[in-house]
Amino acid sequence: MTHQFVIQAGAADIELGEHRVVWRLDHAKAVEIVGDLTVMSSNDGPGHDYVDMATPTNTLVLSRDEYVRAVSPS
User: Fold this and answer.
1) pLDDT per residue over 21-74, tens digit each?
2) How many CB atoms lie within 10 A of CB 40?
3) For the whole model, what pTM was predicted?
4) Does 10 fall in a domain?
5) Do the domain assignments include residue 37?
6) Which domain holds residue 48?
7) Which partner for 48 in 10, 60, 63, 65 could form a disulfide, CB atoms 3.0-4.6 Å apart?
């Protein structure tokens, strides 16, 4: 799986392909996600954060050491 990151004004989208995921984020959203992941990686225990998105869902769940059920977009 290849992940491509594109900084684009006003974007908050994730495009899911068979072999590629394209993350289209504006600068502020990218900074928010990096900040959330940095905090989670510095903690010893499980945790999660929510990020407001546009597509393919309204909420991205960032999770560490927690079990969540994945739901593919239809």
Assistant:
1) 999 999 999 999 999 999 999 998 899 999 999 999 999 999 998 876 766 666
2) 17
3) 0.80
4) yes
5) yes
6) 2-64
7) 63
